[in-house]
Design brief:
Layout (H helix, E strand, L loop, with lengths): L3 E5 L2 E5 L4 H14 L2 E4 L10 H14 L7 E7 L6 H6 L6 E6 L19 H10 L3 E3 L13 H16 L5 E3 L5 H9 L4 E5 L1 H5 L23 H12 L5 E3 L8 H4 L14 H11 L6 H12 L8 E10 L4 E3 L2 E3 L7 E6 L2
Parallel strand pairs: 2-3, 3-4, 4-5, 5-6, 6-7, 7-8, 8-9
Antiparallel strand pairs: 1-10, 10-13, 11-12
């Protein structure tokens, strides 16, 4: 039985750091275990321009400890008004790694998102020419479509056409949740990849209702059937380079989760790499963890692989019940539960 594990320092290719006091509270958890993280732009005032992205990067760096080597990778929020001139600026700024597409109304702070993806084919054409990655929240927002079917509907209605129209556009289908998405990734070209979260590997939709409604297991895309979870487990344990780590760690205060709003999002940064290690261990695939966590994402984004490493030991520890933010709290994924792997450096 493997008792310790040393892997190249991983990267998180999908994280929400928020801003101000909340950012300062959650950032250390991500910076402790990841060398880089792709920071989502859906703040209350979305990051829609290069200038805003650079300013946000500066705020993140100021919130880090002075000896931290953590590197935020920035993204722009695509809107119906994003200009082609703004897109053309991006190659000059190496810290901006991609452009994020949100369907309007799909998730937290997505009201400024795109109402009709076909209307932004002008942007995708320029992105393909500039080799800029497109990061997709792949859901259809339509009250006529069951919330559990939104990802499949997006693939069928939009993504197949998008990939065919722009075959050289690098696309990341983020936080995939279904067998349909995994199958699409496997059947598409090397220009298409996907991130997978810890919650979608650990939980199925039943976990939202065990012991009553559990708002801390509510995220978007929503948890799916066990058959879909098994498909994601098969994907990560296969060692296929098209699947890599993206936590989608999304902090919400306990008071905004446990109320009539029930905000969507799961905060996993308090124990992310340990949770992934536990998943891969359960799959007898610990030898595949480093590629998934440390290599495949960096390769897809054209980044150098990290030179440093982290150490994990097989040792039970308990995830904190809550993370304090000012006078309030965030409840992390697996709060109060034991994990069999612990990060020691």
């Amino acid at each position: 039985m493997t008792k310790s594990l040393t892997i190249t320092t991983p990267d998180d290719f999908h994280v929400h750091l928020r801003d101000d006091v909340l950012m300062a509270s959650v950032l250390p958890y991500t910076a402790k275990q990841f060398a880089r993280a792709l920071v989502m732009p859906n703040l209350k005032t979305p990051i829609t321009t290069v200038e805003q992205a650079i300013q946000y990067e500066s705020r993140i760096k100021k919130a880090l400890k002075s000896d931290s080597h953590f590197q935020p990778l920035m993204t722009l929020y695509l809107t119906g008004k994003t200009s082609l001139e703004e897109i053309k600026k991006i190659p000059e700024y190496k810290q901006i790694a991609g452009i994020k597409y949100y369907p309007a109304g799909a998730t937290t702070n997505s009201d400024s998102g795109v109402k009709n993806i076909d209307d932004r084919y002008d942007v995708f054409e320029i992105m393909e020419k500039l080799d800029l990655p497109l990061l997709l929240h792949g859901e259809v927002v339509d009250p006529a479509i069951d919330i559990f079917d939104r990802e499949k509907a997006f693939i069928d209605q939009h993504l197949l056409k998008l990939h065919k129209t722009f075959p050289n556009l690098r696309i990341v289908l983020e936080h995939i949740t279904t067998k349909d998405a995994a199958d699409f990734i496997l059947s598409s070209s090397k220009k298409v990849a996907a991130t997978i979260t810890p919650q979608h590997l650990l939980l199925n939709r039943n976990h939202m209702f065990i012991g009553g409604i559990n708002p801390h297991h509510y995220c978007l895309p929503i948890l799916k059937r066990e058959t879909h979870r098994q498909a994601l487990l098969n994907a990560v344990s296969s060692g296929n380079t098209k699947f890599f780590l993206g936590t989608d760690s999304a902090p919400h205060l306990k008071s905004t989760k446990e109320n009539a709003c029930g905000c969507a999002g799961i905060f996993s940064a308090a124990s992310a790499i340990e949770l992934y290690a536990a998943v891969f261990d359960e799959l007898n695939a610990l030898d595949k963890l480093e590629g998934f966590a440390s290599f495949y994402g960096a390769d897809f984004y054209g980044l150098q692989r990290n030179k440093s490493s982290i150490n994990l030991v097989r040792e039970d520890w308990v995830v904190p019940e809550k993370i304090i933010v000012g006078g309030e709290a965030i409840v992390p994924l697996y709060a109060g539960r034991k994990i069999a792997w612990r990060l020691i450096s």
